[in-house]
């Protein structure tokens, strides 16, 4: 038997030790490749997910698309008569409304600003009152023509996730507004539930700051399409718990824990598409 001699194992140990950097490099390369593969697969999966902007674009396209930009729209809402026109980047929003004395006024919002008319004569108003009337006119037209306004420059959109309402799947889109261009109510926050199949805005909720603030949840109903533009009416719900997050109002709606406040009904809608 050969005697055990440590010098006999030295070459083998040296070889093994000399291979450690190579083995380590191979191990590191495998880890790098695996990591790169995971990142690539993750990116591929995420790239298939739609962004908030893509979802809003599809919602607008399915509701009327380019027709919004070349349409004259008129309708009646509550005690007012409303009309709007858009063409070539120019817009005009109008409301004809009588005050409690029966005096009729015509309020007009254009690219240049707001003007109130009485018998075709411009009424002198303070800037603060102009803002109040302009926001009132714009708000009605905004909801009637949803989701068109969601691509305005002052609008910020965020995809919160997905949720289900009455067994239908929806994207949850949070909307906030920049102070510049967002109007006097730019601090209001909105949530839109957009159907993942047809991209219809079936539900929306918002928080507002005026008149001591509040929360509203709306359900769209009575959809109809006129000259390629989709219109809906709304059931308007409220909750007195102002600490409720917007994205939980749909759960309260399904649980029938919201109070029906009113119905938002637009009558006698007419559309004329401009060439």
Overall description:
The structure is a single chain. With 275 residues, the chain is of the alpha+beta class. It has helices at 6-47, 52-63, 127-144, 249-254, and strands at residues 71-77, 80-87, 90-98, 104-110, 113-118, 121-122, 155-165, 168-177, 189-195, 201-208, 214-226, 229-238, 259-264, 266-273. It has a single domain, classed as outer membrane lipoprotein receptor (LolB), chain A. It contains 4 helices and 14 strands. It has a 7-stranded antiparallel sheet, covered by helices on one side. It has a 7-stranded antiparallel sheet with strand order 7-8-9-10-11-12-13. Strand 2 and strand 3 form a beta hairpin.
List the helices and strands and how they pair.
Blueprint: H1 6-47, H2 52-63, E1 71-77, E2 80-87, E3 90-98, E4 104-110, E5 113-118, E6 121-122, H3 127-144, E7 155-165, E8 168-177, E9 189-195, E10 201-208, E11 214-226, E12 229-238, H4 249-254, E13 259-264, E14 266-273
Antiparallel strand pairs: 1-2, 1-14, 2-3, 3-4, 4-5, 5-6, 7-8, 8-9, 9-10, 10-11, 11-12, 12-13
Could you describe the largest sheet, including whether it forms a barrel?
Answer: 7 strands, antiparallel
Give the low-pLDDT segments. Answer: 1-32, 34-46
Q: Could you give the count of β-strands? A: 14
Strand order in space, largest sheet: 6-5-4-3-2-1-14
Radius of gyration in whole Å, from Cα?
30 Å
How large a portion of the residues is in β-strands, by DSSP E? 35-45%
Shape: globular
* SSE order: HHEEEEEEHEEEEEEHEE
Specify the number of helices. Answer: 4
CATH fold naming? outer membrane lipoprotein receptor (LolB), chain A
Which CATH architecture is right?
Clam
CATH class: Mainly Beta
Give the end-to-end Cα distance, rounded to a whole number of Å: 106 Å
């Amino acid at each position: 038997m050969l005697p055990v001699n440590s010098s006999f194992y030295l070459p083998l140990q040296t070889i093994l030790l000399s291979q450690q950097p190579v083995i380590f490099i191979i191990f590191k390369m495998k880890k790098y490749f695996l990591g790169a593969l995971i990142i690539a697969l993750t990116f591929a999966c995420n790239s298939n997910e739609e962004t908030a902007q893509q979802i809003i674009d599809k919602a607008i396209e399915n509701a009327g698309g380019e027709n919004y930009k070349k349409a004259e729209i008129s309708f009646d809402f509550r005690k007012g008569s409303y009309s709007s026109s858009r063409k070539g980047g120019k817009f005009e929003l109008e409301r004809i409304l009588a005050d409690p004395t029966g005096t009729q006024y015509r309020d007009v919002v254009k690219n240049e600003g707001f003007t109130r008319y009485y018998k075709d004569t411009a009424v002198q108003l303070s800037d603060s009152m102009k803002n109040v009337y302009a926001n009132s006119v714009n708000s009605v037209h905004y909801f009637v023509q949803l989701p068109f306004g969601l691509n305005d420059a002052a609008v910020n959109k965020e995809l919160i996730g997905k949720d289900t309402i009455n067994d239908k799947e929806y994207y949850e889109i949070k909307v906030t507004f920049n102070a510049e261009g967002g109007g006097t109510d730019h601090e209001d926050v909105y949530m839109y539930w957009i159907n993942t199949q047809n991209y219809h805005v079936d539900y929306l909720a918002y928080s507002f700051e005026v008149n001591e603030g509040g929360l509203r949840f709306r359900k769209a109903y009575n959809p109809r399409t006129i000259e390629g533009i989709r219109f809906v009416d709304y059931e308007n719900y409220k909750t007195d718990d102002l600490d409720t997050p917007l994205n939980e109002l749909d759960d309260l709606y399904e649980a029938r824990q919201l109070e029906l406040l009113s119905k938002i009904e637009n009558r006698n809608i007419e559309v004329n598409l401009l060439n």
